[in-house]
Design a protein that fits this description.
single chain; alpha/beta; Rossmann fold; 3-stranded antiparallel beta sheet; 3-stranded parallel beta sheet; 4 helices; flat
Length: about 170
Amino acid sequence: MAKSSSRFVCQSCGAVSPRWAGRCEACQEWNTIVEEAIAPRPGPAAKGGAGRRVVFVDLAGSAEPPPRCPTGIAELDRVLGGGLVPASAVLVGGDPGIGKSTLLLQAAANLARSGRRVFYISGEESIEQTRLRARRLGVADAPLELAAAINLRDIAASLQSAGAAALVVID
């Protein structure tokens, strides 16, 4: 039988530590660390041994391409192979100031204007800063749902309770 254990998680920033402390080392907040139980994981023997087999297929085979959702930005759609694939994750990276947030806000606004539900969560700008950027870009009329958050647990809980969306941008 596996041994049960616990960990200590800061409720402010989500940092994990092996023991309780009065002050979180990551965010320096006081009295935010709470003990959480870790469910025991069964070992390999409890799962039935060696694992399950995977199926190998030919490289030359074919499959239906996944459906795509165009963003309305031709060059972005080209890079994405025709648009966003539902239930996929896309990481947009680059140097600071090259336009990642601007590009994502424009794409999100285009999808929201087409009748899809879109969430835009900013971790480095306030809601008002995002609104100002939208006004400058001429997309402030898009029915985009905005939030500002940096805690991943808060973001996940909010998205879970908000319901389905066609696109979630976490910037």
